[in-house]
Specification:
globular, 7-stranded parallel β-sheet
């Protein structure tokens, strides 16, 4: 497989590292607007022939198309901010290429992913596959949901993705371990909940707080509703009565986000500052450290998992299927911090399954549309073993 990797930030770098020695990968083009950053990733990989570096402005479709044609790629792996999804997605369609991303396009609330879903019939008619939401959350969490539906339950009342961590970043009062643009949009857009009898609907920000006991020493964290793609994806392919996504943000993190919103610093529209046009969100991002370079300052673990409640053989059951990444381990073995590494595992395994013909299909499909078994079987070999815990929420 020949891949155009659009974006070499923390997750893009991790994707390249995880894919480096895989026999299915012939070439991966490292394309980024920040050329020195792409060069930094190539230097770390030490394999310039298989990982050529190219400049790319993801907002310009003609540049994406030119690179895809020049390198005769089979697949476009979208690892840039979701604000560029439409351009990258459309180029893949026009060129007849497979497409994978890790987050749906950034329409908020009930419209999350609408642009891509509306175009699914066109992709299907053309015999092309767009695999959307294939990171960790969404992504691996959706695979866990499909596995639970296939093997662990006869009927499902609720699927709830639950994400929590005890990560700390030394030397910073506030340092998100993921893109601040993505963080702001996920946390300040209205959260979506799915109920079979009602369909999709939005709730108040940070609503329905609950205490969730995360494994491997992370412990009890307060989790709240946050906008996330799983809620839009899972009910399209799996039968269940309710779907939620809750994140253990922590009260201090929530307070900072609410303050940014109150002051208008989450705004992506440019304003005039003494004759200079600046988007407040860009200013916030510029004041914060780059998540890709925080690994050596981070300690702790992050847990991504899917809690499922339903019945099996006439008995009520609850399970939590999860994967824990320890920052000390990912830094030692891969040289990247835990959050971006964990996010990269899903798309790399998915590309392997596509290359081997084990995942096939046409249209715009989420991870839960495929057989979870070959994916789950490969997680251990990628250094990301999963666990299943019989669980009681309350």
């Amino acid at each position: 497989m020949k891949v155009l990797l659009v974006g070499t930030g923390g997750v893009g770098e991790s994707i390249a590292i995880l894919a480096r020695d895989r026999p299915w990968l012939e070439r991966m083009v490292l394309a980024d607007y920040n050329l020195p950053r792409a060069q930094e990733v190539q230097d770390k990989l030490g394999a310039s022939q298989h990982f050529p570096v190219e400049f790319l402005d993801a907002s310009v479709p003609s540049q994406i198309a030119a690179l895809a044609k020049d390198y005769q790629v089979d697949l476009i792996m979208n690892a840039v901010d979701p604000m560029f999804n439409e351009q990258v997605f459309d180029v893949a369609f026009e060129l007849g290429l497979q497409y994978v991303d890790m987050a749906m396009n950034s329409d908020c609330g009930l419209n999350l992913g609408r642009y891509q879903f509306e175009r699914s019939p066109s992709w299907e008619n053309k015999g092309l596959l767009a695999l959307v939401g294939m990171g960790v959350e969404p992504g691996i969490s959706d695979v866990f949901a499909a596995y639970a539906s296939k093997h662990l339950f006869d009927s499902i009342e609720e699927i709830g993705v639950r994400d929590g961590a005890n990560l700390e970043v030394q030397g910073y009062e506030f340092a998100p371990n993921f893109s601040i643009w993505t963080t702001i949009e996920e946390c300040l857009d209205p959260p979506v909940v799915y109920e079979k009898a009602r369909g999709w609907f939005t709730t108040e920000n940070f609503s329905e707080p609950e205490m969730f006991d995360f494994p491997d020493g992370i412990g009890l964290l307060e989790c709240v509703n946050v906008e996330h793609e799983e809620v839009l994806l899972i009910p399209r392919w799996l039968k269940c009565d309710r779907v939620t996504f809750k994140y253990g943000l922590g009260r201090r993190f929530i307070d900072v986000l609410q303050t940014l919103h109150m002051l208008g610093l989450d705004n992506a529209e440019k304003i005039d500052v003494n004759g200079v046009l600046v988007a407040p969100r860009e200013l916030v991002a510029a004041c914060l450290p780059d998540p890709a370079h925080l690994g050596d300052r981070m300690t702790g673990k992050t847990c991504a998992g899917t809690w499922v409640r339903g019945t099996k053989d006439g008995q009520e059951r609850e399970v939590y299927i999860y994967q824990v990444a320890d920052n000390a381990t990912t830094m030692r073995e891969y040289g990247v911090q835990a959050v971006v590494w964990q996010t990269a595992v899903g798309p790399v395994i998915a590309m392997e399954l596509l290359a081997e013909g084990l995942w096939t299909g046409a249209g715009v499909l989420g991870p839960e549309a495929f057989d979870p078994d070959p994916f789950m079987a490969r997680m251990g070999a990628y250094g990301a073993p999963y666990s299943i815990r019989e669980h009681r929420l309350h």
